[in-house]
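Human: I wish I could look at a protein chain and see how it folds. This is the protein in question:
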Amino acid sequence: MEEKPLDPIRAARGNTLRAHSWETEGALRMLENNLDPQVALDPNQLIVYGGSGRAARNWRDYNRIVQALLSLQNDETLLIQSGKAVGIIKSHPYSPRVLIANSNIVPAWSTAENFSRYDELGLVMYGQMTAGSWIYIGTQGILQGTFQTLGCVAERHFKGSLRGKLVLTAGMGGMSGAQPLAATMNDGIILDVEVRPERIERKVKEGFCDRSTFDLDEALSWIEAAKRVGQALSIGLVGNAAEIFPELVRRGLT
């Protein structure tokens, strides 16, 4: 019960009901989907996205949550506190099947230092917005907002389009990985600097980024070629933004 499942976690498909109701089955499938390797950032550590946003405190608590959902009756409600099942109460068939509260600390003790200490002690968990609430849907969930943000920039400053414009940014994780596609959807060129090559590889494979390189000069040659023909292009550059950005300033490119 305390160990990670041997097989990768994937949300069940089809119409086979494992729980006592489809409401509870839906909650279970959402939890499983949050930790699907195609969705989660680091499923082995229960991290869904955002660096440390987890779906459950630890594997013991994950397994207990799953068992609680499978046994939950149609007139009961499961209570989740920061990734841990803390109770099942008698409620009503029309009540929520699951109630979740994440990362809540009494204000007098609500400091970053205390939170980290309580996390290490296994008393609390950072659930981000949708990791601990089991409703993360991957990079597609932030794509619309990122697209619209860049679209507003284009509307206000560039006559409605980013064509021929270079967007410089950093990060290609679960959320920040929406930036390359959001820029090209606005007809722009984007250089996204990410220090972990596997993050860029994943976004290229998923279709959020066009191409990748370890070479700044190669990236800049692609950018110039795209500018000449008005092509939208997204580039993931493996590197440290703290080094790449000053270098671009030194070259007079920003």
